[in-house]
Design goal:
about 350 residues; mainly alpha; about 75% helix; about 0% strand
Length: about 350
């Protein structure tokens, strides 16, 4: 397939934006820089091409392999004692999404199912598929889901970064077990997506490599830590792809205001949840905030590593949320759709 000449130029500009952010000492510079630049170029109409979705798996696989390497045997054993916290975080996020969906319907109208699918923290792709299934317009869902993730990726790292002494000193590489470690790590990164796609599990390009890297690390097999330049390249890809979703045609009228309000309310409600649960369970606020953030498992795990938080626990909270919400979002949406239909019939009477 022909590649537009504008795309390499965009990636060069995105890389420069990431480098500038790194010079300024910003958190997640190689992701936030490209995201902000691409969103501005796309929303203004300066860049009109589509950022191809097929580039996203490279970023997901690379970051997932990096995150999975933190699942040492000691970390996995420690997670067993935190199961109540993991479940509490997932249920809080789900209840927050349902509450915000109802409030948004009161303020802006629309069906309950449409508002729920716009705010529920799940994959934007999965949300759009469910929207199509229930006959819901997809444009508001796409905008709200993308804006939510963009806010999570930018606002939370910056706030937590400002509340700390800055990034933790770069640790030594987790593992550098020569060619054997590199080969085994690469095999896990490539096999994971194939395996998860074969058994039809959600988000195979992240969860597959994450599982394989965690398995290698937890069994103390030979491994090879992700090189810094490769990790930066993965963040540039993810930030550019995410910023490219801010299409000009989606940003007009009341739709943007509705999406901003719902995303802001969801973040605020999750912040309250992080404060509450951190005190109930005696966990660090920053760790719980990164884990309860409604979206951006890749980016939040990365931020946890930069701020010296518990990467394994943050990732576990997100994965628990994914496996609690994603299988149940469909029937909750269906229930909301039936409630809307019943309300319409009652009004018609």
């Amino acid at each position: 397939m022909r590649i537009s000449p504008a795309l390499p130029v965009l990636f060069l500009a995105a890389t420069a934006a990431g480098y500038l952010m790194s010079l300024l000492g910003a958190p997640l510079p190689w992701m936030i820089g490209p995201l902000v630049l691409t969103a501005a170029a796309t929303a203004s109409g300066l860049f009109t091409e589509r950022v191809p979705t097929r580039i996203r798996p490279f970023g997901q696989i690379t970051v997932a392999t990096f995150v999975g390497a933190h699942f040492t045997p000691e970390a996995l054993h420690a997670l067993l004692a935190t199961a109540p916290l993991l479940i509490a975080v997932s249920l809080w996020v789900l209840m927050a999404a349902m509450l915000v969906a109802r409030l948004q319907r009161r303020l802006f109208g629309g069906s309950l199912v449409a508002n729920f699918l716009a705010v529920v923290p799940t994959s934007p792709v999965e949300a759009v598929v469910m929207a199509e299934h229930h006959g819901v317009p997809t444009a508001p869902v796409i905008l709200s889901q993308t804006l939510r993730i963009a806010l999570v990726v930018t606002v939370i790292p910056i706030l937590l970064y400002a509340g700390t002494d800055g990034p933790a000193p770069s640790p030594e590489a987790l593992r550098r077990d020569g060619l054997t470690g590199a080969a085994l790590t690469l095999a896990g990164a490539l096999l994971g997506p194939v395996l998860f796609r074969a058994i039809r599990l959600a988000n195979p390009y992240f969860l597959g490599p994450l599982f394989m890297a965690a398995l290698i690390s937890s069994l103390d097999l030979p491994a090879f830590d992700m090189p810094g330049p490769l990790l930066a390249a993965a963040q540039i890809v993810l930030g550019t792809w995410l910023g490219g979703a801010f299409r000009r045609e989606l940003l007009g009228g009341p739709l943007l205001g509705s999406a901003l309000l719902s995303s802001g309310l969801l973040l605020a409600t999750c912040g309250l949840g992080a404060w509450t649960l951190s005190r109930v369970f005696g966990a660090p606020f920053a760790t719980v905030m990164l884990g309860i953030a409604p979206g951006g498992v890749t980016e939040m795990a990365l931020t946890a590593g930069i701020l010296a938080q518990d990467v394994a626990l943050v990732t576990a909270m997100h994965l628990t949320r994914i496996f609690v919400i994603m299988p149940n979002a469909g029937w909750i949406a269906g229930l909301s759709n039936r409630a809307d239909a019943s309300a319409r019939r009652d009004t018609g009477r």
